[in-house]
Amino acid sequence: MGGGGCPVSVNTKIVAFCCNWCAYAGADLAGLNRMQYPPDVRIIRVPCSGRINPQFVFKAFQKGADGVLVAG
């Protein structure tokens, strides 16, 4: 099946803001199990994903991120 949407480059930079209590715990567990994710994904632990300041998302794009994930 052909995928629509934007083409993804090999070096796509993703910033992930992960909630300390949920998403970050999953990412940490994946690391403990030696699961790998692309090196150009940057995970940032935050106290609560519901309290992410929209300026953080804008700043990530200004600094060169191709995509931003906010995970709770």
Set down the secondary structure blueprint.
Elements: E1 14-19, H1 23-32, E2 41-46, H2 54-62, E3 67-71
Parallel strand pairs: 1-2, 1-3
Written overview of the protein:
- This protein is of the alpha/beta class.
- The chain is built from two helices and three strands.
- It has helices at residues 23-32, 54-62; strands at 14-19, 41-46, 67-71.
- The termini are far apart.
- The protein has one domain (17-71).
> Low-confidence stretches at least 5 residues in length (pLDDT < 50)?
none
Query: First CA to last CA: what distance?
Result: 30 Å
| Number of separate helices | 2
| Spatial order of the strands forming the largest sheet | 2-1-3
Task: Find the count of extended strands (DSSP E, 2+ residues).
Answer: 3
Largest sheet: 3 strands, parallel
Give, in order, the helices and strands: EHEHE
Structural class of the helix and strand makeup?
alpha/beta
Helix residue percentage = 25-40%
From the alpha-carbon coordinates, what is the Rg to the nearest angstrom?
13 Å
Number of domains: 1
**Approximately how much beta-strand content do the residues carry?**
15-25%
Shape, per Cα inertia axes: flat
Give descriptors for this structure.
72 residues; alpha/beta; three-stranded parallel β-sheet; 2 helices; 26% helix
